[in-house]
């Protein structure tokens, strides 16, 4: 009597002379059965062959019959080996994700690739150092009594906060010490500052040292904005010549007042729950988050692309009644329920341009700081706020306009010239312009 029990196909069948004459068949029989598909055969070798291949020409039909009956339950060892090798590669790839790239390394790579020169690398490193110092002061501002006003008023007629003045000094000192900056333009300075010849370089750096400084005392989001231009002509002058100080300043102003399309690099630093340094050198937008454990900006957002649409709008609606009727109609449209979920746009307003742009780069939407009856040219400065941010957003695939023309095409006539701005996801800006047309 033949007793049936469970056996491994490869072990029994490989003993049969038939399989020795057919290497391909042997390979198939050496496959591993899954736990749910063990097969019961007679212990008789001949009956096994007869049961599996009840045909005369077994050598011709073994592969077809076996494949049809058991392909769904058998995994070839070759497949398992390939899967194992793939798993090893995947594991190595996952481990690579934990390798950190800091801002300095990234800048050096850009220099090696020919995207920037060594001097611009030094300037950007100097700016990042200023941002680290400002971040530290902001975190301790209430402890070391750096909240409140300084008691002075800047060229805009605005009360200066203590940290406005200190942050401006930090930026200026870091840029001077880099030895690569020729002219410095700040929101807190009345006129462009020409760096002393001993420390000067060729780059023009424009910046707002603390954007949203009204948020400092309440520990809300603030930021720094910067842009870097190349000079049209050297603005340094010798005080021993016949030039007057006013003439020198005028040369600086001519040199500095360039349209945003001339920017070589631009960025911002966000001071919030995280400190995020975001920069573009004309090759996309990259964001680096400050790791406080070792004081380095680490690459966390690579080649940021702004969503084409968004469901967030950011306007100071306290000025609604002061706006143009066309703009009011657009805001009315945003408030109406619409697709895809039957909900209106969400209104968000931080009171910090850097915070608004940072959220928009990641989630999309539109930000507006339009002109109104009291501010004919809007509130933001063109040279060191609107232009650098527009450069960043365009590098990420977005758009920026004053309602009539591209922000980056506007040439400033004055250092502290203001401009209205609408900036954000390309489809959202296009939709706005349809209302303003």
TrEMBL record:
Entry-linked Pfam families: FBPase (PF00316), FBPase_C (PF18913)
InterPro entries assigned: FBPase_C_dom, FBPase_class-1, FBPase_N, FBPtase
Molecular function (Gene Ontology), one example: metal ion binding
Catalytic activity: beta-D-fructose 1,6-bisphosphate + H2O = beta-D-fructose 6-phosphate + phosphate
EC number: 3.1.3.11
Entry's transmembrane regions: none
Domain Fructose-1-6-bisphosphatase class I N-terminal as annotated: residue spans: 109-302
Top EC group: hydrolase
A cellular component annotation (GO) from this entry: chloroplast
Cofactor: Mg(2+)
Sequence ranges assigned to domain Fructose-1-6-bisphosphatase class 1 C-terminal in this UniProt record: 306-436
Pathway: Carbohydrate biosynthesis; Calvin cycle
Compartment(s): Plastid, Chloroplast
Keyword Magnesium belongs to the record: yes
Keywords for this protein: Calvin cycle, Carbohydrate metabolism, Chloroplast, Disulfide bond, Hydrolase, Magnesium, Metal-binding, Plastid, Transit peptide
Superkingdom classification of source: Eukaryota
GO biological process, one term: fructose metabolic process
Subunit comment: Homotetramer.
Entry similarity comment: Belongs to the FBPase class 1 family.
Protein name stated in the entry: fructose-bisphosphatase
Organism: Salix dunnii
């Amino acid at each position: 009597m033949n007793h049936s029990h469970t056996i491994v196909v490869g072990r029994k069948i490989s003993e049969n002379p038939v399989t020795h004459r057919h290497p391909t068949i042997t390979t198939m029989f050496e496959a591993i059965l899954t736990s749910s598909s063990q097969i019961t055969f007679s212990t008789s070798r001949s009956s096994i062959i007869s049961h599996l291949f009840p045909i005369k020409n077994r050598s011709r039909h073994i592969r077809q019959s076996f494949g049809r009956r058991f392909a769904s339950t058998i995994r070839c060892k070759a497949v398992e080996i390939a899967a194992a090798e793939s798993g090893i590669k995947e594991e190595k790839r996952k481990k690579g994700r934990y390798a950190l790239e800091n801002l300095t390394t990234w800048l050096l790579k850009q220099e090696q690739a020919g995207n920037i020169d060594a001097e611009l690398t030094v300037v950007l490193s100097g700016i990042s150092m200023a941002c680290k110092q400002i971040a530290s002061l902001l975190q301790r501002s209430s402890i070391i009594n750096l909240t409140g006003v300084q008691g002075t008023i800047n060229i805009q007629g605005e009360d200066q906060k203590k940290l406005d003045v200190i942050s401006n000094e930090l930026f200026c000192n870091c840029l001077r010490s880099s030895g690569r900056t020729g002219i410095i333009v700040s929101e807190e300075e009345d006129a462009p500052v020409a760096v002393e010849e001993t420390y000067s370089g060729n780059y023009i750096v424009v910046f707002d040292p603390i954007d949203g400084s009204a948020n400092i005392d309440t520990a809300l989001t603030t930021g720094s904005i910067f842009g870097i231009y190349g000079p049209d002509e050297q603005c340094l002058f010798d005080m021993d010549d016949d030039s007057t100080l006013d003439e020198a300043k005028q040369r600086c102003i001519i040199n500095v007042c360039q349209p945003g399309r001339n920017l070589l690099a631009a960025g911002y630093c966000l001071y919030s729950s995280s400190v995020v340094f975001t920069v573009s050198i004309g090759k996309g937008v990259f964001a680096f988050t400050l790791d406080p454990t070792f004081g380095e900006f680490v690459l966390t957002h690579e080649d940021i692309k702004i969503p084409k649409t968004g469901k967030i709008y950011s306007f100071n609606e306290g000025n609604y009644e002061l706006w143009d009727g066309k703009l009011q109609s657009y805001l009315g449209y945003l408030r109406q329920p619409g697709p895809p979920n039957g909900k209106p746009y969400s209104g968000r307003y931080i009171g910090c341009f850097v915070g608004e742009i940072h959220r928009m780069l990641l989630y999309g939407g539109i930000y507006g700081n339009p002109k109104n009856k009291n501010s004919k040219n809007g509130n933001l400065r063109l040279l060191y706020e609107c232009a650098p941010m527009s450069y960043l957003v365009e590098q990420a695939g977005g758009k920026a306009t004053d309602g009539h023309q591209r922000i980056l095409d506007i040439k400033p006539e004055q250092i502290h010239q203001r401009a209205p701005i609408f900036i954000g996801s390309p489809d959202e800006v296009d939709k706005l312009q349809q209302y303003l047309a």
